[in-house]
Design brief:
241 residues; mainly alpha; two-stranded antiparallel ribbon; 8 helices
Length: 241
């Protein structure tokens, strides 16, 4: 999993020839059913997790200087199904690959200078705070993203959203990477229950394969199965650091 000390935007314009928009995966009825499932589950989880989140917020504030929440722009759903050139995009001069939104997490790293370089997070990363290590292992740092789900930025299940600049780099290096944006990104997903955090580009490629497999089979039932499969991954700290 890639983490950075500061948010970043893509600074280069990237355009591809316009192509007809692809149909959204799954039926319209299935999409509505999945969205209802996500909102209901997110509301229930917010109520159940609220005491935990309040305690975590206090611990984050007391154990290291800096904000409680970590906010960063991420690439979300691409409703167009394709990339458009500048003469079609109009005012949208930079194509990020999808609608940008702010993702919320509990901060798990020490605040770094604005010019800090982006690097892969490692098992014993010195940037991770004392409480942050536990939050990451049990995925508790992801709980504020329930608000992203209620806002409509994300679903509980879907491909993990990436930063704009990193998305632009991976789109060039991994075939069909941008096809992940045909559905709303998620807090968990088939890739997250099947593989641990990313440590190299090959890890990302394998996760993209899982994401595309999820999109091919998308359904409310599959979402429920992935949500249930997420529980042992979280409780047993599988693949987290």
């Amino acid at each position: 999993m890639l983490l950075t000390a500061d948010s970043a935007h893509s600074s280069t314009s990237r355009y591809h020839a316009a192509r007809p928009a692809e149909a959204s995966p799954g039926s319209r009825v299935g999409d509505v059913a999945r969205r209802i499932l996500n909102v209901v589950c997110a509301l229930v989880l917010v109520v159940l997790a609220l005491p935990i989140m309040l305690v975590v917020a206090v611990l984050v504030k007391l154990t290291s200087p800096g904000p409680i929440l970590y906010m960063q722009p991420r690439v979300g759903l691409d409703r167009r199904g394709g990339l458009v050139p500048p003469e079609v995009a109009g005012r949208r001069r930079i194509d990020h690959g999808g609608r940008l939104f702010w993702i919320y997490k509990f901060r798990t790293m020490h605040v770094a200078p604005p010019d800090a370089n982006q690097t892969w997070a490692t098992a014993n990363d010195p940037r991770i705070t004392s409480i942050g290590r536990y939050l990451r292992q049990y995925r508790i740092d992801e709980l504020p993203q329930l608000w992203n789900v209620l806002k409509g930025d994300m679903n509980l299940v879907g491909p993990r959203p990436e930063q704009p600049r990193i998305f632009a780099e991976l789109r060039d290096k991994i075939p069909d990477y941008d096809r992940r944006q045909r559905v709303l990104p998620g807090i968990t997903g088939l890739a997250q229950i099947s593989q641990s955090y990313d440590a190299c580009l090959d890890d990302v490629k394998r996760k993209v394969d899982f994401d595309l497999e999820y999109i091919r089979r998308i359904s409310p039932l599959q979402d429920l199965k992935i949500l249930l499969a997420t529980l042992p991954v979280v409780m047993l700290k599988r693949g987290g650091w």
